[in-house]
Structure formats: C-alpha cells, structure tokens
Amino acid sequence: MSLLAAVAPHLPFLRRYARALTGDQTAGDQVVRHALQALATGDRTLEASVTPRVALYRLFHAYWRSAGDLAGGGEANASVEDAPSRLMRLGPASRQAFLLTAMEGFTTSEAARILDNDFAAIEELILTAQREIDAELATDVLIIEDEPVIAADIEALVRELGHHVSDVATTRGEALAAAVRKSPGLVLADIQLADGSSGIDAVKDILTAIQVPVIFITAFPERLLTGEKPEPAFLITKPFDPVTVKAAIGQALFFHPRRIRHPT
What we know:
The chain is an alpha/beta fold. It is built from twelve helices and seven strands. The protein has helices spanning 3-7, 11-22, 25-40, 52-67, 83-87, 92-103, 108-114, 119-136, 148-160, 172-182, 199-209, 242-254; strands spanning 80-81, 140-144, 164-169, 186-189, 214-218, 234-237, 258-259. A five-stranded parallel sheet has the order 3-2-4-5-6, sandwiched between helices. It has a two-stranded antiparallel sheet with strand order 1-7. Strand 2, helix 9 (148-160) and strand 3 (164-169) form a beta-alpha-beta unit. Helix 2 (11-22) crosses helix 3 (25-40), helix 7 packs across helix 8 (119-136) and helix 10 (172-182) runs parallel beside helix 11 (199-209). The model is unreliable at 70-79 and 259-264 (pLDDT under 50).
C-alpha cells in the first residue's frame, strides 16, 4: 500500500483534531500541512509497528513538539461561549489527551503512544481535563419530573456533578414559570407530568423563551423519536443508568453555546 493510500482515510479526522487542539481552523490546517510536507520530503516517517492512524497522529505530534505548540485562536466571544473556546482553556497536555480519547476515539494506550508518554500519565491528564471541564460547566439545572423518588435521584446526580438544582417542576405551567424566573443552564425533562400535561409541550414553551440544552428522561422514547421537530439530541430511557445520565449532562453542556457569567 502506498503512503498516500495509508494515511488518506485519516486526514479529515486529523484536521478535525488539529482544529480542536489549536482552537482555530487556519492554524490547525497549517500544522497538518507542515507535518505532511515533512513526511513527503522524508524528514519524518510513519512508524511501522503501529496502525497507520496511530502512526499518522504520532507523526503530527512529533512535528507539533519540534515546532513548538502552535496554538492559535482568538479571544472567546464576550457574551456567548462555545465548545472550542472552553477546550482552549484546558492545559495543552490535558487538552491533547482528552481530545485523543474523547473526540478521536483512541484508547488510553494508543493516546500514550501518540503522545510518547506512559499510560498512567495519560490517565491522569484525562482525569485532570475532565475535572476542569466539569468545574467549567457547572450550571443551574431545572428538573421537570412528577415522580418524587425519580426527581430525588436525578437531583442527587446533578448535585454530585457540581451543578445546582434551581427548581423541580411537576407540571407544564410550573416548568415554564421556573424557566422564565431563573433561566437555567440545563433542563432535564420527563414526558408525562402530574396533571396530565406534557413535558414535550413544557420544553417547547421554554425554548420559545430561552435557549437552553434539554435532556429528556422518559419511559416513552417512541413519543419523541418521530423524526419531527423538535426532536431531542439527548434522550435517556427509564429506568436510567446514572452513568448514562452523567455522560449526557456533560455532552449537552459541553457542546451547547452558553452565556458567560461575568462577576458583578
């Protein structure tokens, strides 16, 4: 197999990774281009003892280290913050380990090989990144749930992740009033509510008033997965696994633009 054929399928993903790593499309593409030029001229080679994808990312990082961290990107928007700007506040080493495993899907062992580091060090870098992200994403959460025991379980999970529960609503009317009153950073919603009202309609009401990520936690997923709008990006089926809820909360908050709270 030719060199081009070996690396070509992985280049779009390497470009995605480089852009996330630098925080800037132009800077990311430039690093990838220079690394490939070094490969084409023979200044760099692909390691034969690993898969072509791991070898390509190793090559990229070898060039990255020799050229110095070429992190680009401007200042975050003053009023709205997105996932790339949050990523850029992670330390460079933590950001690399986190992106390689969470976004690119490499195992911890593969990430260690790519970054020329040992397994334990990469594990610690990933944990550090996750702790920083969790602290960065702490927000007020509105829970829409009419069953007290389930609401209490969700509330405990939310608090365990470092968030604050602003309200627990049991009806459509309560949910809208709570959202308007406190403008939460996340909504966790059931479908069937206490007075026969719908959590789907409650969320529609809320989204006309504020922009907020929503996670539905329901025993009736078929009522949401219809192909019609608004269809949720995050849907968890009851009975839920706490690990699944935690992962969904992290993903929903990380990838949804959020307002930056400035000190008063």
